[in-house]
Design a protein that fits this description.
The chain has 680 residues and is α+β, with helices and mostly antiparallel strands. The strands form six sheets. Strands 22, 24, 25, 27, 33, 34, 35 and 37 form an eight-stranded antiparallel sheet that branches. Strands 23, 26, 28, 29, 30, 31, 32 and 36 form an eight-stranded antiparallel sheet that branches. A seven-stranded mixed sheet has the order 12-13-14-15-17-16-18, covered by helices on one side. 51% of the residues are buried.
């Protein structure tokens, strides 16, 4: 790649890539780097050399100086000067000049076409903002920076592992940051495009690092980060690096899941370790509640879901804080929220249906270098798309035209390559306020005329008949029903999950009419339903939902049996939660009560217990030996167990419904009335 040398950072870059180390590198120029720029303010950093001096930044508009800001370089800050300019006009382009003060001031940075910034428009409508995100970028030539430059993004966000440091001695940390910012294409971009960000484990100082295992080193890595970022805020001023940027149409919350993690009790559950810490938690909730931006990005270097490897630096480890945050977004009707992460060297798009009262989009952008990790392209029930390639970055464009706001997200690579475009209308990111829509079922298969789902999750969870399972009109408790023949191993397959990740509560309701039951003194089993691991029949255990029939000790009874799979918190510090099987939970029912008769059965889960209801009456409550939310599952078999065949139900099933909450006994009693519904 050709090196661009028309600015002060090029000589420093040549020293670095040419192998010169020690004192020569320590004297390198860094910047100027434009940092946080909002509607009336701008931040700039500059390091002219490794010695003390006094500088002045002049802000120029139409050839006239409109503001000047002095700053000094000091050894405590690695001789980096920071300038904060306030009182600017919104949506205005300014040039800037940096002079070294003295008896004869010397211009170090000219106010030319390479050195400028544009303040944000505070407008929440009739506006357009385009931003970019990249993570996992090392100190090496990279085609992403000139591509961002050509796209003319309003702000570029560095999402961690930018760069790779993996040390916590301050000298090394500062040197790595200098070398990263001295890369010619990056330096050229940052001289006129605001560049801000957060960190991940490798620039925090340690692979899989957290606040506990890097307790002694993190003050140094934070100091180096603060020295070489021109942000409006650095955590709470003493600890952490979280901050936010308001660009009018879009507000980005840059979170810090490293500094505080494992160091104090969680603000949502004091029995478990925190990820964000109490200060950051309150800052984030306050910011979200006060935000007027149509679109809000919760961005960090780690990912929001389970990496499914031996590392624990993801939000699955801290599911209780993740889910408490998303529950607040939902309960308080905070609209326009999307998630963003990096870290895993795979680009991914997930969509969590109705997680926050609307579909929650979850973007992972990584890597910015060329080293991918195929093993981390793992299954998740909300996964929409993934790409295991290098040199990836992401753009978000928030715009409103003709009173219709939308967010356009594009996964990109250099050379103008667009691998995926996701367009989300603002009206699709607003929670329903109608209680029927909020409290209604997440899944509902009437099984009257077809196998489609009739809930707000739509066709993503339509059921599919297997081995000739058929509907019979006017044969159900309400309209039609599905007839399943055990000897033909018939069942229905639902290919995706319908509950939130790690659900704290749910309810399942259905009508069934068996034409045969497991024989007494046999090992035969017959399942009404059971969840699957990845949306297709297989024997791998993922029975978060499981209801079946088997023989009892007495000939005149049958066992209506429940199982579940839940999360158990890590038993040691820094450990991830694990999925554990719980059950069987047995309930004995007279055979004559079930055989060739329609019965309504329901069960509820609340993280503490499973309760079983038959025809509106609670017949059992089973406390969980280990309380906890559900573990991940991918889909559902109706009329069989997780493997599809071998333990199939024989008879009729009708009106299968699932809720994202634990229904009350009165609600379940109403459901057991074949002519009533919860909407009545």
């Amino acid at each position: 790649m050709m090196l661009r040398c028309g600015y002060v950072g090029c000589f420093a870059w040549l020293l670095v890539v040419g192998g010169v180390t020690g004192a020569a590198v320590a004297d390198d120029v860094v910047g100027p780097i434009v940092g946080t720029v909002e509607s009336t303010s701008a931040h700039v950093l500059y390091r002219p050399r490794a010695s003390q001096t006094k500088l002045r930044l002049s802000v120029v508009q139409d050839g006239q100086t409109v503001a000047t800001v002095p700053a000094s370089t000091k050894p405590d800050d690695d001789f980096v000067a920071k300038f904060e300019v306030t009182g600017l006009q919104p949506a205005t382009t300014y040039h800037y000049q940096i002079d070294e003060l003295g008896p004869s001031p010397t211009m170090l940075v000219p106010a030319d076409s390479a050195h400028h910034f544009t303040t944000a428009s505070p407008a929440r409508k009739d506006n357009r903002v385009s931003i970019s995100f990249v993570s996992c970028v090392d100190i090496e030539p990279n085609g992403i920076w000139p591509e961002m430059d050509a796209l003319d993004v309003d702000t570029a966000f560095l999402m961690g592992d930018t760069p790779y440091i993996d040390k916590s001695d301050l000298k090394t940390v500062r040197q790595k940051h200098r070398q990263f910012l001295q890369q010619p294409d990056l330096a050229s971009l940052a001289a006129h495009t605001p560049m801000v960000g957060t960190w991940d484990d490798h620039d925090f100082g340690r692979n899989n690092g957290n606040g506990r295992n890097l307790l002694e080193g993190k003050p140094n890595t934070r100091k180096g980060f603060v020295d070489y970022r021109a942000h409006s805020q650095y955590g709470n001023g003493r600890e952490g690096v979280y901050h936010k940027v308001d660009l009018g149409m879009i507000e980005v919350f840059l979170l810090d899941p490293r500094y505080f993690s494992q160091t104090e009790p969680s603000p949502v559950d004091p029995s478990k370790p925190t990820c964000f810490g109490a200060d950051q938690w309150e800052w984030l909730l306050t910011g979200l509640r006060q935000s007027k931006a149509p679109f809000k990005v919760l961005a960090m270097g780690a990912i929001w879901q389970d990496k499914k490897n031996t590392e624990t630096d993801d939000m699955f480890t801290y599911w209780y804080e993740r889910d408490a945050l998303l529950d607040i977004v939902k309960s308080e009707n905070i609209d326009g929220v999307v998630l963003l992460g990096g870290d895993i060297h795979v680009a991914r798009h997930l969509m969590h249906p109705q997680r926050v009262g609307y579909d929650l989009h979850d973007f992972v952008i990584s890597p910015g270098h060329t080293r991918t990790i195929t093993e981390l392209d793992v299954y998740h029930p909300s996964l929409q798309w993934s790409l295991v390639e290098g040199w990836q970055f992401l753009t978000m464009t928030a715009e409103e035209t003709d009173e219709s706001a939308k967010l356009i997200v594009q996964f990109r690579q250099p050379g103008g390559v667009i691998n995926r475009t996701v367009t989300i209308a603002k009206n699709q990111m607003t929670a329903a306020t109608d209680r029927g829509a909020v409290d209604g079922p997440r899944a509902h298969w009437p099984l009257d005329d077809d196998f489609t789902n009739q809930s707000k999750l739509g066709d993503r969870i339509d059921a599919a008949p297997v081995h000739g399972a058929t509907l019979k009109r006017d044969s159900g408790i309400i309209g039609g029903a599905v007839r399943l023949h055990r000897d033909q191993q018939q069942y229905l397959n639902v290919p995706r999950s319908f509950l939130d990740d790690n659900s704290a509560a749910y309810s399942v309701s259905l009508w069934f009419k068996p034409t045969s039951l497991p024989a007494h003194d046999s090992s035969s089993r017959s399942f009404l339903l059971e969840s699957t691991a990845e949306g297709q029949p297989e024997n791998r255990g993922a029975w978060s939902l499981s209801l079946g029939l088997r023989s009892a000790d007495t000939a005149d009874q049958v066992n209506l049996q429940l199982f579940t799979s839940t999360l158990q918190p890590g038993s040691l510090p820094e450990a991830a939660p694990t999925a554990i099987s719980q059950g069987p939970f047995d309930t004995l029912v007279d055979r004559d009560r079930l055989m060739d008769q329609w019965n309504h059965v329901a069960f509820t889960f609340d993280s503490q217990s499973l309760s079983l209801f038959l025809n509106g009456e609670r017949v059992a409550r089973h406390p969980l030996p280990i309380p906890g939310p559900t573990s991940e599952f991918g889909g559902l078999i109706i009329g069989g167990h997780r493997n599809g065949v071998g333990r199939n139900f024989d008879g009729w099933i009708d009106e299968v419904s699932i809720w994202q909450r634990s229904l009350t006994q009165s609600e379940l009693a109403k459901l057991s009335d074949a002519k009533a519904s919860l909407a009545d």
